[in-house]
Write a structure and sequence with these properties.
alpha/beta; Alpha-Beta Plaits; five-stranded mixed beta sheet
Length: 174
């Protein structure tokens, strides 16, 4: 059996339906705005990506290194101290008695100060090398050039405190 609704209940049901319809329309409009705005955002990002890719593709390319070609050497920094103020630690790495003292004489004749002379931790060093403290690359490269040593680099296998007052280490090899 149907009972007709009282007047106040009939109005509430009508407002519920109207609110549901209005909310559905608002949600649909929001979804439509997000799609439009998202499309514009995607186009903007896509344009920027395309521009970056074009710039990258048109950027100058470094020439390929062919087999047998030598790489360009890194620029050598200039020495900041004169030879007379550069202290060198001379170490014997070849095991021959008196070799470090003889090498220290060669270094001193070039104008360098000798900090100390001794034996390297290893006595099987095959090639002479020059190592330098941080900040003394120029002095290390200059000493290597003066002594005709081809292997030059930062300290390796030695601690700075082992150098005493020396800025550069010359290890005499075989």
């Amino acid at each position: 059996m149907d009972h007709p609704l009282a007047a106040p209940d009939a109005l509430i049901r009508l407002w519920r339906t109207a609110a549901f319809v209005a909310g559905s329309i608002a949600a649909l409009e929001l979804l439509l705005l997000l799609v439009i705005g998202g499309g514009a955002l995607v186009r903007t990002v896509s344009d920027r990506v395309q521009l970056a890719a074009t710039e990258h593709a048109l950027a100058p390319v470094a020439p390929l290194k062919r087999a047998g070609q030598k790489a360009k050497p890194a620029p050598v920094p200039d020495a900041k101290r004169p030879r007379s103020r550069t202290v060198v630690l001379v170490l014997n790495g070849n095991g021959r008695s008196g070799a470090a003292a003889s090498a220290a004489g060669r270094v001193q004749r070039r104008g360098y100060k000798i900090g100390a002379v001794g034996n390297a931790p290893r006595s099987d060093v095959t090639r002479s090398l020059v190592m330098f403290r941080p900040g003394f690359a120029g002095e290390g490269h200059r000493l290597a050039k003066d002594l005709h040593v081809k292997v030059v680099g930062p300290l390796d296998g030695m601690r700075i405190r082992d150098l005493g007052r020396a800025q550069v280490v010359f290890i005499l090899g075989a």
